[in-house]
Design goal:
By secondary structure, this protein is mostly helical. 52% of the residues lie in helices and 4% in strands. The protein has a two-stranded antiparallel sheet. The protein starts with 5 loop residues before the first strand and ends with a helix. 10% of the residues are buried.
Length: 96
C-alpha cells in the first residue's frame, strides 16, 4: 500500500511503513518524540525525510486520534429505515 506520505512495500524493510521515497520507518519519528527529541533532531538524524512529510504525518496522527476520541464519546445511534422509524425513535429517546 502506498500514499503520498507513507509507503508499505514488501521490498522495503519487509513492508514496514516508511516515509514515502525513503527507507525511514514512520515509527522512528514517534520513538524520537517519545524520547523527548525535537522534530529538528529527528530531521537532522534522517535527512531523507522532509519537514513537510514529518509534519503531515503528525497532523494525520492527530486527526486520527481526535476522530477516534470523538467517535468513542458519541452515543450509539442505530440507522433508522422507514420500516423501523418507531423503534428507532424510541431508541433515540433512550439514548438522549
Amino acid at each position: 500500500m502506498a500514499d503520498a506520505l507513507i509507503d508499505r512495500n514488501p521490498e522495503i524493510l519487509g513492508g514496514t511503513p516508511v516515509f514515502a521515497g525513503t527507507r525511514v520507518p514512520v515509527r522512528i519519528l514517534m520513538e524520537h518524540l517519545e524520547a523527548g527529541d525535537r522534530l529538528d533532531e529527528f530531521l537532522d538524524d534522517y535527512p531523507t525525510v522532509l519537514r513537510r512529510q514529518a509534519v503531515a504525518l503528525l497532523e494525520r496522527a492527530t486527526a486520527m486520534l481526535v476522530s477516534a476520541t470523538d467517535e468513542a464519546t458519541r452515543p450509539h445511534r442505530k440507522v433508522c429505515t422507514q420500516n423501523y422509524v418507531k423503534p428507532c425513535m424510541a431508541m433515540r429517546d433512550e439514548v438522549l
